[in-house]
Amino acid sequence: MTSKLWGGRFNLPTNKLVEEFNATILIEKRLFPFDIKGSIAHATMLAKQEIISEEESKQIISGLQMVAKEVENGVFVYDTADEDVHMSIEKRLTEIVGPVGGKLHTARSRNDQTTLDSKMHMRATIEETLELIRQMQKVIIQRAKDEMSVIIPGYTHLQTGQPILFSHWIMAYFWMLQRDYTRFQDLYKRMGQCPLGAAALAGTTFPIDRFFTAEQLGFDEPTPNSIDSVSDRDHMVEFNAVAAICFMHLSRLSEEIVLFSSQDFKFIELSDDFCTGSSIMPQKKNPDIAEKIRGKTGRMYGNLTSILTTMKGLPLAYNTDMSEDKEAVYDSMDTLQLSLQVMTPMIEKMNIIEAQTREAADRGFSTATDMADYLVRKGMPFREAHHVVGSTVNYCIKHGKKLDALTIDEFRSFNELIDEDIYQDITLEACVAARKSYGGTAPEAVRSQIQQAESIIAD
């Protein structure tokens, strides 16, 4: 005989190694509150539909509330022999209220329970993640507003391209995070269907009210296909996908923080409490947090690949392979949330070294495009202007000069259209201010962008 709640079919007790290998209870502790909430809704519905009596429902709900208190107070006993959160709670419930606890499982299965729990937990996690993204966006907006006078070099191919505002640069990450925010929102909406009542795979013979339990648990409606309900892990795959994309953005920002805080750039100085030192080189101040986030990106991508691979060849409906969904998803949840929590104050406290950013922006002929635009405004076709400016830059490189250090005679040796007004068009401030196009780097365009961002986060 076996003491398992499902053990009537079996003659031998489960091998201890099998119990340890098969158990997910220690991984899924975070699901306990959601499983209990789902069970309370189910017990309420069973009584409403007169499948069990009102008194039985009240006993079951009272027992579940006692189990919830034990979990909350840290006295609940997690035993791998119970296999998973569902069996563990039902076993403890039956110990508290007696045989009536066994009626709770009427018209449902662990298959629809586990999908329900994971969806409820994930929706709660998404709400927390959205708030963390918003907090980081608010810090980015504030930094952009505070540093409107700072000019930095803008890069393509990591080569100096054009001068831009620091505020413009950092706001780029606001919009990356905004796309992440909307992806999480979309996922949350797609998870609005409740799987409870799908039972093992084919529904149930009992007259349950799935619309009632869906509403009780905060869902929009029940899932329309019971087979899909218990075999669906799209939400787990999609969370890892969205989290991986978000982490790609955090990694790109981390990479720039690592570069910009190096001695070769020195655009920023990270606060001491977000850096570490070297065990041998006393002068070192290492951007370990940014490096760590950059390094964790591989794990986040791996978590997505892991669950995609688990699901890729499974026949309908439920298979135990699907219990492998949790570790990768929970790791992505925890890693993303912790990284957002630590990165937000790091950005808030970093110091911008304006003298360094300006000097760097003044190198590398970052105003060359503006000289070409100057010639275009004088009537020259852009391709011809591009060639003239390229020749001028080549001359500067050979003679160790900057563009704005050339005499008017040197300028005019490349084209007669160039006049004294060239100097006012190729200052850093003029180059930045001239890019007034929507989304550009001119101060007025960036202020407009910030206002747009503020209206988004105010909604």
From the spread of the alpha carbons, the general shape counts as: elongated
* Beginning-to-end CA distance, first to last residue: 60 Å
Query: How are strands sequenced across the largest beta sheet?
Result: 1-2
Strand content: under 5%
How many strand segments? 6
Mean residue pLDDT: 95
Largest sheet: 2 strands, antiparallel
Helix share bin: 55-70%
CATH class of the largest domain: Mainly Alpha
Radius of gyration: 31 Å
Total number of helical segments?
A: 18
CATH fold naming of the largest domain: Fumarase C, Chain A, domain 2
What kind of oligomer do you see? single chain
What number of structural domains do the residues give? Answer: 3
| Helix-strand sequence | HHHHHEEHEHEHHEHHEHHHHHHH
Return the structural class.
mainly alpha
Any idea what the CATH architecture of the largest domain is? Answer: Up-down Bundle
Low-pLDDT windows of residues: none
What is the CATH H-level superfamily of the largest domain?
Fumarase/aspartase (Central domain)
